[in-house]
Write a structure and sequence with these properties.
This protein is α+β, with helices and mostly antiparallel strands. Helices cover about 20% and strands about 45% of the residues. It has one helix and five strands, in the order E-E-H-E-E-E. Strands 2-1-3-4-5 form a five-stranded antiparallel sheet, with helices on one face. Strand 4 and strand 5 form a beta hairpin. It starts with 8 loop residues before the first strand and ends with a strand.
Length: about 80
């Protein structure tokens, strides 16, 4: 499902694979943008890894609704929502 402008919010994104962990915070962005930031942080720390094995989440924070979305990384290194 592609992100839409109504998903612009504050997001905390986290990714993990085994004991490897990466996190990022993104203000007024889409969940995919937040996960891309977390992927970028992970690449800085773990340049040689199989990204398809990582699992990421984007958790909305702030006022109003609170969503928790799950993502995987495709073979191109892009976040894909897991339903």
């Amino acid at each position: 499902m592609p992100s839409t402008t109504n998903e612009l919010a504050n997001w905390y994104a986290a990714g993990s694979f085994g004991s490897s962990l990466a996190v990022a915070t993104c203000i007024r962005c889409t969940p995919e943008q937040a996960v891309r930031l977390a992927i970028a942080r992970a690449r800085e720390r773990y340049p040689r890894t199989d990204w398809t094995q990582w699992k990421f989440t984007a958790e909305e924070f702030g006022f109003g609704r609170k969503l928790l979305l799950h993502f995987r990384v495709d073979t191109e290194g892009e976040p894909v929502r897991v339903h």
